Amino acid sequence: MGKITFYEDKNFQGRSYECSSDCSDLHSYFNRCNSIRVESGPWMIYELPNYRGYQYFLKKGEYPDCQHWMGFNDSIRSCRVIPQHRGDYRLKMYEREDFKGQLMEFTDDSSNIFDQFHYRDIHSCNVFDGHWIFYEEPNYRGRQYYLRPGEYRRYTDWGAVNSRVGSMRRAMDFY
User: Fold this and answer.
1) pLDDT tens, position by position, for the chain (175 residues)?
2) In angstroms, rounded to a whole number, what is the distance separating the alpha carbons of residues 122 and 103?
3) Could you tell me whether strands 78-81 and 3-9 are parallel, antiparallel, or unpaired per DSSP bridges?
4) Beta-bridge partners for 23
5) Residue 46 near residue 22 (C-beta atoms within 8 A)
6) Which of 20, 31, 101, 172 has its CA 20 to 30 A from that of 123?
């Protein structure tokens, strides 16, 4: 089980709200979020309700202001704890929507998907095992996206604004 505390002001000041499970709408608990403490996790936090908008991956630690989690603003409206997974990690990426075109299977982290797959754009993905974090840029930079086991027929299914996937890592690397 995870534990995360949201604070309205920087440096863990102001009203706070503690959460230990997924929450699809945090708006009724606080107006803004300017600092966060993650006591156990990791977590994915979202700019908008219902796990939409910018996504930010947070491992255990303290985030005294939104720049520490690479936030674009003080709006955090939903959160999801990333469950610990014991076992294999496996996914397939496709160059086109609906699992078409060239594919490549991954079982481990990749700091530069283009070096391995020779495609900069990934249009669909099937996560068979484990929980993964996709990054828009190589070397685990840029926008972040959380993928649970399941089918993602187009990049918008994992909440992306474009089809670029530069790197990815297994969420287990953060426990």
Assistant:
1) 789 999 999 999 999 999 999 999 998 888 899 999 999 989 999 999 999 999 999 999 999 998 888 887 889 999 999 988 889 999 999 999 999 999 999 999 999 999 988 888 999 999 999 999 999 999 999 999 999 999 999 999 999 999 999 999 998 766 5
2) 9
3) unpaired
4) 79
5) no
6) 172
* 16-to-41, 46, 51 alpha-carbon distances in Å: 18, 17, 20
SS (H, E, C) 70-137: CCCCCCCCEEEECCCCCCCCEEEEEEEHHHEEEEEEECCCECCHHHHHCCCECCEEEEEECCEEEEEE
Question: In terms of C-beta distances under 8 Å and separation of at least 24 residues, what long-range contacts does 56-59 make, across chains too?
Answer: 56/144, 57/133, 57/144, 57/146, 57/174, 58/4, 59/174
Q: Rounded to an integer, what distance in angstroms lies between the CA atom of residue 105 and that of residue 125?
A: 10
In this structure, what are the phi and psi dihedrals at residue 113, rounded to the nearest 5 degrees? -65, -35
All domains in the chain, ordered by first residue:
3-81 (2.60.20.10), 90-174 (2.60.20.10)
